[in-house]
Amino acid sequence: MALAIRGSWTILLANELFSRWFAPATGDDNLLTRLPELDVVVAQRRLSEGSRYELNVERRVKGRTVVLEVVLIAVSDGRIQIEARDDQKRRRAEYMLDSYARMAEKNLRDLEQEKARVERLLLNLMPRAVLQEMREFGTVSPQRFATATALMLDFVDFSEMAVARDPAALVAELNDIFSAFDRISEMFGCERIKTNGDSYMAVCGLPEPADDHAANVAHAALRMRGYIDRRNRSNSNQWRCRIGIASGPLVGSIVGVNKYVYDVFGPAVNLAARLEKLAAPMEILVSQATADQLGSALVCASRDVCTVKGFGSTRIFELLGPGGTPR
Fold first, then answer.
1. What domains can you pick out in the chain, each with its CATH number?
2. What is this structure's pTM?
3. What is the pLDDT of residues 269-292, one digit of tens each?
4. What is the three-class DSSP state of 9?
């Protein structure tokens, strides 16, 4: 810092750092000789108006060129206060702050992407409503649903396919099929609960209640079978599925501690699994409770009364399709 007389620009005093940066070029200790870059006319006008006059200059300091920010301020008694600071330090600080800000923004974006990835993974394990409950309360209470519809599907001769075919290609095909099933389930308001090998399980009516849960599952099953039909027409590998559908009480809950999943239990799940085992290739069997809820929009053909493990004598129906259209 330094003080000078306004008008004559005579230096009254200067500290050591100012003298080192702006050493006098001649014996005349004048600000104009120390700071030849100063625009006298502009400086006089701004100081007369009570404004600051600022400029940046370059100086060689210890063998390196530094950019100095110089500020002139009018003070009392016709004097001028001259302040100088190393502008490169400020710029470096600003650059570091900008770098930290950019790093923080990038970390925030990465965190948001990671949160979205984790959410997608969790939504593969549980319905969105269950995930929301876990976020809010840290736990999920088992829920009993008076009536919902479950779908169980698996493929015929999958074990033989797994032995005879390239495992990578088989898994890739199965992944394509299950991905299509997921989209179909979502289309009809169903929730895919889990896959286990070649089996696929979906429900409707939980955790969000749905009055038309039986019709939603039936439409999804028909669309899944139609997808397999179309795929087989253009694919040398032939996939044939069996589907069982049943309606009734269900319980939904998180199962496990470290590797938890959302699962459903109850008579409807058990009966759907039994019907799937009884179904012929590319056949959809439904329980009487499901058939009773479908009404006239979807046609079911009554099958013989069968003895079903755990359920005794049970009337079974085959789901044909909309308006009785053959499959």
1. 2-91 (3.30.450.20), 137-322 (3.30.70.1230)
2. 0.62
3. 999 999 999 999 999 999 999 999
4. coil
